[in-house]
Amino acid sequence: MGDQDNARNGVVITFFSTASAVGKTLIACNMASEIARNATVCLVDLDLQFGDVANYLQLQDEYTIADVERDMNVQGDSCEVAPFLTLYEHGQVAFYCLTSPKDVAEAYNIKTKTVQQIIRQLQSMFDYIIIDTTSMFSELNLAMLDMSTIVNFLGIVDFIPTIKNMKIGTDTLKRLGYDTQKIRLVLNRSDSKTNIGMDDVERVLGQPFYHILPNDFRAASQSIQDGVPLVLSNGSTRLAASLRELVDLYTDGRMGSRHQEHQDAAASHSLLGRLFGR
Question: Residues 135-155: pLDDT tens digits?
């Protein structure tokens, strides 16, 4: 993992949605893999009850975030997260993961404050922290959105209820005064068979999609079966190319200057405080 750099303040990229089964975990795994070619990365699975990062990457994770919670309850701020991380390697690419609990019941014991401490510690250790979340406006998710440099608001346009949930989500973020430069609408499976026009969806949402990922169910399924993210596989697909393009948008050298701006804004004007009165 290398020496910890106390001056480091890692970029936090979060995947969020108000609809389920939109591909958050698959895309998060691919983004972590592609960024890890040139930077240090930790992928955090915060779908605490039904997280799939360990399954998608076929990890043999000895420890999970539940173990960090237990250790922090004993050691407090002196608890180090590093021993609880699981290494993923494929070829010349390697990054670390903090996986979700193995027992659903353990999810209920994980406190938002603990996760915030974990993310802050990871920011001092890694260049990038990629967070996969559940599809809801929970206290934990709002805290993570506050800490994020960039939020990928992921959606699909397969049927009306999904679009309705996206609309509710984007409206909620606007109502809470979120910086529009922080939220990036990403459309997944754009050319799947549907009679819903993308222009109509953008009109309903009130903003264009920041990036559009093509539909490739076969390649995505094979990637999960093999435990190898698309961007690391030998084959070249349109989806893999589009995922690399998305990573390029976030790693072209312009994120660093915005990172501190978002951190300062989060400290003084947090979503969590606005929604829960804290």
Answer: 889 999 999 999 999 999 998
